[in-house]
Amino acid sequence: MKLPPLNALRAFECAARTGSFAAAGQELSVTPAAVSLQVKNLESWLGRQLFTRRANQVRLTDAGRDYYQNAAAALGEIARFTDALTESASRRPLVISAPPALAELWLPDRIARFDVQHPDVPITLRIEAEDKDLEQQGIDLRLSYGGELPDYRTQPMFQDQLVAVAAVRCDPCQTRRVAIDWGQAITSVPGWRHWSALTGRAMASVAEISVPSVPSALALVKAGVGVALLPEQVIWAAISTGQVVRCSDAFLPMPRPYVMISAHHQARSRRLIALQNNLLEGV
């Protein structure tokens, strides 16, 4: 069976349907240049020009129109068949992969809300610190801080900020500090050194406690061990219920958003769309 490169075909179909490489790039969560390159690859593979390009506009050629009609129909049929297959397999759960902070602190209330709205949809939650190959690992939706997997669809959820919290209000510069080791894959999250620069105050020479995750840090803070810089939205339940308090009005923006990552072929899955809409509600 002689098939064109499927990523290139998908990029072509999206560009033809939306009328521009920019719009296609936005839908596929890639750059317009990446869409253009994929289309050129398909044109080379076919030996036909599919678009005429002028300034920032693209138009289908006769060959492009013919190919689009057939490609769109074929991709639509595959999507419908896949959707019917996955939707009918009611016992197959939606698999969510998330780091500890989101899985243990941010997700529970949202999964509870989703369960009320869709009690017939089973869910499997996997707590994984590192991003995974979604299709190889059978993951429907990956939640991540600033993560981006090539060839997958990435959607921002929310941008958070780090705030100093403790069991009781205290001076962060004079209190024992809890520091989070975010791992080798994340280097952009600011820490106490940045807090000192932000506030213009030196940090007291007290022993720090290093922990591997936000939930670990939050547990120590609740126990009264010290003060920690934690993502405000992620731990909002603990703040709003008074389990921890903010020790300062200052905050450090987290430079990258929390995102959700999914496979392009699942863009029409009703179950996954419902779950994504649920997670985006109120953020």
Automatic annotation (TrEMBL):
InterPro entries: LysR-type_TF_proteobact-type, LysR_HTH_N, LysR_subst-bd, WH-like_DNA-bd_sf, WH_DNA-bd_sf. Residues 4-61 form the HTH lysR-type domain. Gene3D superfamilies: 3.40.190.290, Winged helix-like DNA-binding domain superfamily/Winged helix DNA-binding domain. SUPFAM superfamilies: Periplasmic binding protein-like II, Winged helix' DNA-binding domain. It holds the Pfam family HTH_1. It comes from the Bacteria. Keywords: DNA-binding, Transcription, Transcription regulation. The keyword Cell inner membrane does not apply. Belongs to the LysR transcriptional regulatory family. This is LysR family transcriptional regulator. It comes from Falsiruegeria litorea. The lineage of its organism: Bacteria, Pseudomonadati, Pseudomonadota, Alphaproteobacteria, Rhodobacterales.
